[in-house]
Amino acid sequence: MTRTLEWSVRLHLSEEDGTTKTRAVLDTGTATLTGHGVARCNPQDVDIPTIGDELSASRAMRDLAVQLMRAADAELEAAGAGTTSGRAGPPYSWSDTAT
Predict the structure, then answer these.
(1) Are the CB atoms for 52 and 87 separated by under 8 Å?
(2) Which of 18, 43, 56, 82 minimizes the number of CB atoms within 10 Å of its CB?
(3) Average pLDDT over residues 26-48
C-alpha cells in the first residue's frame, strides 16, 4: 500500500512583557491537535526576542509531539498492539529506532 499525506502545523507566537507564548496547531485533515509553549526572559538577561520565539515554539511542538504519541499509543492499544499493563513493553512494530 502506498499513501501520501500532507499534514500542516501552524505556529502562532505572541510576546508581551518578556513572555513569549506559542500555540502549535497540527491539522491532519481528519483531526486537530493543539500544543502550547511559553518562554520567559529573565529580567537580568539581555532581551533577545528570537531566543524566546525558539524556546516557546520548541516547547509547543514538544507538547504537540507528546499528544500525538499518546493518540498513536491509544490507537495501537485499541487495535490490540499496545500494552495494557501500564508499563513500557517491547517496542511496537512501528519502531522509532534507525536501522
Answers:
(1) no
(2) 43
(3) 94
Give 37 or 87, the one with higher predicted confidence: 37
Q: Which residues pair with 37 in a beta bridge?
A: 22
CB-based contact 47:76 (threshold 8 Å): no
pLDDT at 95: 46
How high is the pLDDT of residue 83?
A: 60
CA 71, 73, 78 angle in degrees (round to 5)?
95
The dihedral formed by the CA atoms of 31, 32, 33 and 38, expressed in degrees to the nearest 10: 170
Q: Is the CB of residue 26 less than 8 Å from the CB of residue 64? A: yes
Average the pLDDT over 17-46 and give the result.
95
